[in-house]
Amino acid sequence: MEVAVSLVGSLVRAALPKLMQVINEERGNLKVDAGSIESELKLIQATIPGTFATGTDISSPLQRECILQLRRLADEIEDCIDRYHVAKTSRRQFAREIAELKNRPREIPDKMERYIKLEASLLHSRTAASSTAAQEERLESPDADPHVHELLRVFLSAYDSKSRSAILNCLLYFCMFPRDHPARRNPLIRRWLSEGLVQRENDAVKNLEALIDRRIIDSIQVSNNGKAKRCQPHDGVMDYISDQSMSQNFMLSCDDNAARQAVELILPENLSHLRTLAVFPAANYVAANFNLARFEVLRVLDLKECSHLGEEHLKATCDLLLLKYLSFGGSVGRVPRKIAQLRCLETLDMRRNETVTLYAEVIQLPKLKHLLGKFQLSKRDSSRSAIERLRRFLTEQSNLETLSGFVTGATQGFAQLVRHMKRLRKVKTWCDSTADAANLTHLLEAVKEFIRDGNQDLLTRSLSIDFRECSLPFPDTLQAPGSITSLKLCVNLSGIPDFVKQINNIDELCLSSTNLTGDTILDGLRNLLTLRCLKLAEDNLGPLDIRAGDSPGLERICLVGAQSLNIKIQAGALPRLVSLHLLCPSLHLLPGTPGDIEIAHMAGLKQVGLHSGVERARLVLVGA
Hints:
This protein is an alpha/beta fold. Helix content is 34%, strand content 20%. Strand 18, helix 18 and strand 19 form a beta-alpha-beta unit. The strands form 4 sheets. The protein has an 18-stranded mixed β-sheet that branches. A 3-stranded antiparallel β-sheet has the order 2-4-3. It has a two-stranded parallel ribbon with strand order 15-17.
């Protein structure tokens, strides 16, 4: 079993303001001298970013131990504060723990303390000669990769101290994933936020894009919109950051080949201050005894790869009161009511499960932002009175931004509630065979309101509707003027729905299982001038004749034909195209002159993808 364990987030930046906020709020109730702790945290703040974020190696055992001691102090201060916030400790216990931590720096040997202060004072006055000598010494090391050192040095030099520390921590976090397990973009960003490595989602996105743009991180898989979907460091960077993360106590990796047949997850005992636990088990691993109770300050728990976990394991996670991110891949049918204890929870990811029943307590969690899976509301919470109570809460207090997604069936539930979640930016729903006309009406009203509200903010909005199992027809005449960024429809249609033609600022559109011909689809999309990414997936897609002037702003096209794909791209069509994917094992190209798919005029075309079963396709490069 391979287990990745992160021990440190951006502790210094988080611990100091948290401590002072608690002291100010509880002034008069707590007898705590925070002055000395504040000064120690400021010393850490001054020392650690400069020492680590410049890309220099920490070769002195004494220096390593100093940094570990100070990081541990900041870690424990934040843990103490967070336990107090969730009422895990009383005021008296909190004051006692803070008082004990106040004396912690005195336990560090005098020579260590002197070294830290000397290091802080000399940090910005090191000579170029000593830096050059240090670099040459590193290059002489048989384990050093001079290209990686230089790449990171140049990259980090463009950032100030605070930003450099944040992006370096984001880079080190890739050590949490095994080498053969690329990180998925959105879960990675959510975990960075839960860890406190970044404070805002925009900062996380910028950091990831910067790492990819400078080729420090490789994009392994690209989404329809051109953004990296999965990514990982190349081997040289992975070696470097693995060494750095171990030396800084940032991450511990346990990979015991002898235990791959074991039925019990065994972790080191001295991990009481564990912040993150991610488990990547072997295929034959079965968790018979999985004790999480000792990890009481855990913030991130990623068990999505553990398919053998059950409801008792999910219930056990409900005692981890500081948990912010929970990804659970076991086989469970419902989320326990006990999860109401997780008042810090921001992300609940259960996408590896089938349809999961949840109670009102889940969507009433005060900090919940991302609810990921295929959920339905319990019957107990589907009564008229229960729905009304939930409406009031959601209208006034809900922080949900992602609901991806929920099932619309025969009983009341999310279809009646989603329009009251005013912060939503991403919504996905499945309509099953039991969905009745009343619930479908509520759902479509919610869809109209979600699209309409897109005109009132500048946030990206994403909507996905799956009608494949629904016995009722989708209304082609639905009117929903407004704005969304991304729309995915998996619906049997007689034509492009009116509301699709009315959407403003749409960037990405995915249509699948519509039973429409390619030319019918293109004709219905002519007025979507902002459309940049288009994906069409049908059993038989065609005939599709793309002419000059058809959707001239398109930059990325993915056409999927499960059985056949008949396509022709004429000269002058799609001049801005960057990516063209034609995915069908039987690719029938329509006769054309001088060729079947004309791409010579597409100066920006960088990528052409074909199904692995296609032996030969004629892509005419006139004048190439």
